[in-house]
Write a structure and sequence with these properties.
about 25% helix, about 270 residues, single chain, globular, 14-stranded antiparallel β-sheet
């Protein structure tokens, strides 16, 4: 009886040890590239406010826009910007006794120049600038509109971001081959947006691909949503502009009429 019991215990113990050995030898399935990228995006979404961020339908921002030439800053212009997601924006620049309005709604747009007293439809190049800004912005990534367009998200690894800091980096690639890279700080907040765009060479009909980059700074919590108050833009490594917000309001009512093109420059409000 005892010998039989001992044999059973020995056999059971052998099976248990064998099971543990098999478990130890079975490797944990690696996290896929897409899953890693999705995890980073989810962390970023929670960092900027999660559901509060996604509930934002309109943005009204006020501040200063500064143009840079050859790395040297110009005179800041005051601006007010109206955004209705996903594809409406109107920006008014005021300074030096002048007023300039640029308004876009989907694939249409117009520009009012108060100094020249002109009201014109946007050119194809200006419409493309708006489409590019909408496509590359952090909002488009975090709100997920790229999924319906068949874009693919991949993980690129970590990049140097200053002393003892590294940014997690993902790339979004559209079916037409256009890609955008997004870098996120350790706390999950977006830090950089990088992409290439085609620009016409000076005094030539040829085009070239030029690297562009947005750097996001000074995040401030507004109604539970983390918002960058400083955005610097770079082209080929040189700074070309700075947006510096003074105030940002979410979900304030914005009339559709402000995006519609006025009948004439005299009707601009």
């Amino acid at each position: 009886m005892r010998r039989s019991l001992f044999s059973k215990l020995t056999a059971s113990l052998f099976l248990i040890i064998a099971a543990f050995a098999c478990a130890a030898q079975t490797p944990t399935p690696p996290i896929s590239n897409e899953d890693k990228a999705a995890t980073i995006i989810q962390k970023a979404l929670q960092a900027v406010g999660g559901d509060r961020y996604l509930s934002v339908k309109t943005v009204t921002g006020r501040g200063f826009f500064t143009d840079f030439k050859d790395g040297v800053s110009g005179i800041p212009l005051r601006f007010v910007d109206y955004i209705v997601y996903p594809d409406k924006e109107r920006t008014e620049f005021i300074g030096g006794g002048q007023r300039l309005i640029s308004s876009n709604e989907r694939d249409k747009g117009w520009i009012y120049d108060g100094a020249a007293l002109t009201l014109k439809d946007q050119t194809a190049e200006q419409l493309e600038d708006f489409r590019l800004a909408t496509r590359t912005g952090i909002e488009g990534l975090l709100r997920g509109g790229w999924r319906a367009q068949g874009a693919k998200l991949t993980y690129l690894g970590r990049r140097e971001a200053g002393l003892a800091r590294r940014n997690e980096t993902v790339r979004l690639t559209y079916p037409d081959g256009f890609w955008i890279e997004y870098e996120f700080a350790a706390d999950g907040l977006p830090a950089k947006i990088l992409y290439q765009r085609k620009l016409k060479k000076p005094d030539s009909d040829e085009t070239e691909e030029v690297p562009e980059e947005d750097r996001l700074f000074k995040f401030i919590s507004i109604d539970g949503v983390q918002t960058p108050y400083v955005i610097d833009h770079y082209r080929s490594g040189l700074q070309t502009s700075r947006i510096n917000y003074e105030s940002v309001e979410f979900n304030k009512t914005i009339a559709d009429s402000i995006f519609a093109k006025p009948a004439s420059f005299k009707a601009v409000k």
